[in-house]
């Protein structure tokens, strides 16, 4: 069993910075939510400051760390479907069409359904400020808009046979030029254990900084799992399946010695090509110590009790 040092445990704190964003009611038809009253189109953008940067209700995360600037969040992106150059993603994604959009939820569930964007947004939208750390050693603090994934999963009612959740991203090489490369097995597939997916920290994000997700950040809906490395946060999701097997994720297929199924932030387990003990916060100088589970150990360490986290990396 991997021991967690007391110095790595985040003090108990309220990790949610909550703001009521949109509330509506719907009825179930064919397993999917149907609008009762909601305008079509994108989420509204909240007030902006004189520079035009969208505003947010929070200024720091629960550790008191400041938000990464909107400029950096939207212009430094890991999104290989568009480019391996982090600063080239935004211009390549500018014409990406994300509406209309549907997410099909099925597999081992009692009530499969197809959810459009309005249906997804009927789940209460709330702001949560989460740290996102990438395996290459850089991180950001981002005010996300979205809802706990468990709310959607509870809606479709997983059967007792369901053990894991498999996510599939859009496959569209015309819009996503990076998918024309043959060195990764597209489409992007990711997975979580069911208890991880049902954890209240696990978010389906539909926005950031008070507005809809920009294309370069995973528009229109993406996963955010803040205690795991960023590559687990699959973007442009089109399908979610409850399954009884461990999904073969894209990075597990591509580099199994480097990327495991769990991908928990663990400073004691190095990537074969670099150390994970420190990280660089985008917009800051120098480096900082990497926190166990990205600083969310108190909330999530119990999910892995008894597991060897060096083997289950």
SSE topology:
Elements lengths: L25 E4 L2 E4 L34 H4 L15 H5 L8 E6 L5 E4 H4 L5 E8 L4 E11 H8 L7 E6 L19 E5 H4 L5 E6 L2 E2 L9 E3 L12 E7 L6 H5 L23 E4 L6 E2 L7 H4 L13
Parallel strand pairs: 3-12, 6-13
Antiparallel strand pairs: 1-2, 3-4, 5-6, 6-9, 7-8, 7-12, 9-10, 9-11, 13-14
| CATH C-level name | Alpha Beta
State the total count of DSSP E strands. 14
Order of helices and strands: EEHHEEHEEHEEHEEEEHEEH
Helix fraction by DSSP (H/I, runs of at least 4) = 10-25%
Principal-axes geometry comes out as globular
Cα(first) to Cα(last) distance is 13 Å
Count of structural domains: 1
Contiguous low-pLDDT stretches (5 residues minimum) are 1-46
**Strand content bin:** 15-25%
Mean pLDDT: 86
CATH superfamily: Oxidoreductase, molybdopterin-binding domain
Cα gyration radius (Å): 19 Å
Number of helices: 7
Major β-sheet profile: 7 strands, mixed
Q: Which fold does the CATH topology refer to?
A: Sulfite Oxidase, Chain A, domain 2
CATH architecture: Alpha-Beta Complex
**Would you tell me the structural class of the helices and strands?**
alpha+beta
Question: What oligomeric state do these chains adopt?
Answer: single chain
How would you describe what is shown here?
With 313 residues, the protein is an alpha+beta fold. It has a single domain, classed as Sulfite Oxidase, Chain A, domain 2 (Alpha-Beta Complex), CATH 3.90.420.10. Helices cover 11% and strands 23% of the residues. It has 7 helices and 14 strands. The chain has helices spanning 70-73, 89-93, 117-120, 149-156, 194-197, 250-254, 297-300, and strands at 26-29, 32-35, 102-107, 113-116, 126-133, 138-148, 164-169, 189-193, 203-208, 211-212, 222-224, 237-243, 278-281, 288-289. The strands form 3 sheets. Strands 5, 6, 9, 10, 11, 13 and 14 form a 7-stranded mixed sheet that branches. The chain has a 5-stranded mixed sheet with strand order 4-3-12-7-8. A hairpin with a 6-residue loop joins strand 13 and strand 14. The chain is globular. The two termini are 13 Å apart.
